[in-house]
Amino acid sequence: MKIEKIFLQNFLSHESSEINFKGSINAIVGQNGAGKTSIIDGIVFSLFSESSRGNIKNLVKKGKSTGIVQTEIRDGNNLYLIKRDIANSSNDFIAKNNIGIARGRKEVDRKIQEILKLDKDILLSTVIIRQGEIENIFKELPDVLKKILKIENLEKLTSSTGPLYSVQKEIESELKYLENRKIEYENKKLEKEKLEKEIEESKKKLEDLKIKKLEKEKEIKDNSAKLDELKGKRDKYLELTGRLSFLTERKKSIEKDVENYDKIKSEKEKLEKEIEENSYLEGGESLLSELHELRKSEKNLKDQLNTLEKEIEEYEQNLTKKISLEDDAKRYEELKERKEKIEEAYNEYNSLKSLLNDKLKRKEKIENEIKSLGNIPSLDNVNEEVENIEKEIDNLQNIKGAMKGRKEQLIQVIKNLENIRENKCPVCGRELTEEHKIKIKIEAETEVKDIEKKLSDVEKKVEELRARKSELSNLRLEIISKLTKLRKLNEDLTRISQEVQDIQTKLKELEKSYKEYSEIREKLILLEPKYKEYLKVSNYNEKTLEEKKNRLSSIKAELDDLQKRIKGLLEKIGDEREFEGKLKLYKENKNKLDKLREYFIKIESEKNELEKISKEIIELEEEIRQLNFNEEEFENLNKKLEDLNNERINIEKEISTIEGKINASSDLLVNLNSELNKIMEDLNKIPKLQKAVDRVEKLRKILGGSGLQNYIISIFKSRIENNLNDILNMFNLSFSRVTINFEIGGKTQKSKVIIKAYNTAGNDLDIESLSGGERISIALALRIAIAKSLMDEIGFMIMDEPTIHLDEERKKELLNVIKYSMNIIPQIIIVTHDEEIKEISDYIISVIKKGDKSIIKQGEYID
Ligand SMILES: Nc1ncnc2c1ncn2[C@@H]1O[C@H](COP(=O)(O)OP(=O)(O)OP(=O)(O)O)[C@@H](O)[C@H]1O
């Protein structure tokens, strides 16, 4: 089993670090505080969810809410992925070959133990070695073995605080409890007898009360019949006395009215006479209302008359004004009409004028542009010059060709001269002297030089001509463009001049109308105020004035007629105030008389009723006397019945109380019986429990003794011892054998381990007397040996700063041992500062700290 990879997120100083363990010996290096041990902490946390820094929450990077550790472990073909979430344990999970097999902290812990086949205590005591703790194994071995072999649990099982002892204590306390139950049984039995007696007494009392209740019920029945009879009489009595008191009251009221009879009669006759005398006032009311109506109409007509008179006066004034303004208004309208007629010509004149301005500006601009073109050189002249240059270039090119030909001839001559073996002219065959040859060569070379100079002059000339030709080509293009522009401008100028002329002709035609329009406009401005005045009065006319006057005369006639009618009415009424006063009194008297008549009729009918009522009163008084009803007798009987009912209710209450008591006591009795049965059942357990106490006691003695522990340890010890010697052989030490012996401690004495090494001479040496290096080798071998005894194959070993505090000698030994361990353990992970460990490692993981963040560099070394 190998750890392949670990990923730390917000874990201690790591923000996001992925570490691959690719080598056999993987060295984790870096400065103090860089975050090396944190990687080991990450592995331990991911395997056992355990923090080596106190509280688990301390593992979260400061400032973050949680941290994640993800580890990949390979076991043959199986790849396990373990994910741990520090703050949220329910997010923990483990997957096997990408398929989830457990979730949640507890389940994941259990699964890992199953996969590793060892629990955390054993791994932490063997293959995971914390800073400077290699040799601790010698001290811890007894405890480690106890842990491994679960002897610890055996001790715990039998100790005075262990489960067996508690079982024994529990049974003993149960027995004690059962002793108390015996006493309880006796007490409950007495209680039961007392309860049974009480129930008997209550039942007897209940019988007596039931008889008493029957007697009361009979008495109530008899008295109820008597009371019913009295109630009938009482109802009749109340009815008769009620009627009697009503009639007595009525009689009193009638008698009072009858006393007034004569007084009312004379009053009525007096009023009748007075009304008769003033009968002429009948209909006076309608006369008055007619008079009021006529007066209202009179006022209305007078108002109309006033308004109309004012209206006519104003109308006459406005009509006069209209006539005086009529001529000016007519003139205004005529001018306005003329103005509208020539308005179009006026507007056209104005727009043509502005158009003319624009055209003139445009014309001036074109003329300026033509001027700016200046004198354009003749295109023909330029063409001719170009033609001449081309001819000259051709000519010079020919000369150049001829000179080049001559130059090559001369060079060939010079070459030939050099190659002549015999002093004979290769051309003519004549003899050639050396001087002659030199002379020919000098002449030829001079001519070559001369030709070269001429060639260069010709080329210069050709260049100059070409430059001039290109200048002329540009000039030509410029001339063509200017000529094109000039032609266009001239065309524009001709067109625009024609347009200007046309506009001017048109303007002349329109000038007369334009002037007339301007004059009319002036005149209209002068006439406008008068015209506005005229418009205000233009609707006034003679016909309407006549109509208004006719209306005035008809209102006057109407008013006259009305005033005559008012006069006639006043003649009938006389003084208006006095008439109104009389009329008011007349009406009041009439109302009074109506009421008196009504009252008089009522008294007359009451006189007849009085007789009847008196008779009925005498009859009623007789009937009441004969009824012979006594209210006191009724009250007493009523009270007696009420008392009897209360007594009956009390008896019933007493009955139900006793019945409830009997029921409760019966329930109590049932409970008591069942409790007594239960206690009896408990008491039957006593003999069995006594036997159990004896047996547990015996078991504790057997398991607690050192014999059994010694036996278990001795079997396992031989396996470790054999493994240890095999490993030590590989470490190349000079011992023939190392032995391990235990002294199992007791309650007061601690267990002890005695390790002895035998040298080749056969002498045994105590572990304390060995060299430091030898001790470290044996310690490491011992750790591996224990792990090997428990696992078929040890996958990895983790060491945090194993060389810390070691001197050079021991360090060297340790390095050897680590190297040799490779044969037994396929993967070693070491946190170290030590250069020599780096040297024996085949994979370096460097950790550096930037700010508060750890950064990983793999496969290379960074100091
Ligand atoms: N919860 C945390 N958040 C952030 N940083 C932390 C936290 N807890 C501890 N540290 C810092 O993490 C750093 C790394 O600690 P670690 O023990 O891994 O260092 P190291 O490289 O093993 O150092 P040394 O060689 O001194 O043992 C330390 O500087 C420590 O102060």
How would you summarize the topology of this molecule?
Layout: E1 2-11, E2 14-20, E3 25-30, H1 37-48, E4 68-75, E5 78-85, E6 93-96, E7 99-103, H2 105-116, H3 120-125, E8 128-129, H4 136-148, H5 151-158, H6 163-259, H7 261-277, H8 284-373, H9 379-419, H10 434-537, H11 542-573, H12 576-627, H13 631-704, H14 706-730, E9 735-743, E10 752-759, E11 764-766, H15 772-790, E12 796-800, H16 808-821, E13 827-831, H17 835-840, E14 843-850, E15 853-858
Parallel strand pairs: 3-13, 3-14, 8-12, 12-13
Antiparallel strand pairs: 1-2, 1-4, 4-5, 5-6, 6-7, 9-10, 10-11, 14-15
Helix pairs in contact: 5-13, 6-12, 6-13, 7-12, 8-10, 8-11, 9-10, 14-15, 15-16
The protein binds adenosine-5'-triphosphate (ATP).
Residues 12-13, 30, 32-38, 58, 60-62 line the site of adenosine-5'-triphosphate.
Pfam family, one: Rad50_zn_hook
Binding site for Zn(2+): 425, 428
Coiled coil: 168-406, 441-661
